[in-house]
Design goal:
The chain is α+β, with helices and mostly antiparallel strands and about 140 residues long. Helix content is about 45%, strand content about 15%. The chain is built from six helices and four strands, in the order αααβββαβαα. The N terminus is likely disordered.
Length: about 140
């Protein structure tokens, strides 16, 4: 059994926690700002609202309503969208707040389908640095 003192001494929780917290939108006004003043992409699986921020890093907010499914299904969709976002984050240009609102078809979509639609959305919003463009710039 780990005591509270041992947990503090070992550095628990892990040091990666603050990084994840810095990449999340949590306050309602931040969501509203992205909805009202940001650019939007509306796809089959979800919509993405993007608004530039001054923080130096991109942040993600997720909205998954009960129309998507039960709690287990909604959590699966949230985890998949969060992981797809973090996988594409190194290619995202600039610092922006992104709000992804899942649609009911997202519940039946695979991780690959969610990731492909996210890449498509980021390209439409002009926030994804394409690997082909980077190769052409370096030549």
């Amino acid at each position: 059994m780990v005591t509270a003192g041992a947990a503090v001494a070992s550095g628990w929780p892990s040091r990666s926690l603050p990084v994840r917290k810095r990449t999340r939108l949590t306050d309602s006004p931040e969501f509203e700002r992205a909805y009202r003043r940001g650019k939007a992409f509306r796809g089959r699986l979800f919509s993405v609202h993007e608004f530039p921020n001054e923080l130096g890093n991109s942040r993600l907010g997720l909205s998954v309503s009960k129309k998507v499914g039960n709690a287990v299904t909604r959590n699966v969709v949230r985890r998949r969208l969060r992981e797809a976002f973090h996988a594409t984050l190194p290619q995202v240009s600039g610092a922006s707040d992104f709000v992804i609102s899942a649609r009911p078809p997202a519940a039946d979509a695979s991780f690959l389908e969610l990731g492909e639609e996210l890449v498509k959305a980021l390209r439409k919003l002009d926030r994804l640095e394409d690997a082909r463009e980077e190769g052409a710039k370096s030549r």
